[in-house]
Amino acid sequence: MKANAVRLQLHALAYNLSNFLRTLALPDEMESWSLTTIRLLKK
Questions:
Q1: What is the pTM for the complete model shown?
Q2: Domain limits at 36?
Q3: Do residues 41 and 8 make contact, with C-beta atoms less than 8 angstroms apart?
Q4: Counting beta carbons within 10 angstroms of the beta carbon of residue 14, is it exposed (0 to 12), middle (13 to 18) or buried (19 or more)?
Q5: Contact criterion met (CB below 8 Å) for 14 and 23
Q6: Domain count, the chain
Q7: What is the DSSP string of the chain?
Q8: Residues 15-24: pLDDT tens digits?
Q9: Cα separation of 22 and 25, whole Å?
Q10: How far apart are CA 28 and CA 43, in angstroms?
Q11: From first to last of its 43 residues, what are the pLDDT tens digits of the chain?
């Protein structure tokens, strides 16, 4: 149960960070693109 909460928090952080970087660093024509997947990689 705790692992699911951590995974949800990581997903939210990754989503928000990618949106922030998209609006900050990408060209104007790419600002309207949406993020469709976030993959967590296990090593």
A1: 0.57
A2: 1-43
A3: no
A4: middle
A5: no
A6: 1
A7: -HHHHHHHHHHHHHHHHHHHHHHHHS-GGGTT-------PPP-
A8: 898 888 878 8
A9: 6
A10: 35
A11: 788 899 899 989 988 988 888 788 777 777 677 767 666 666 6
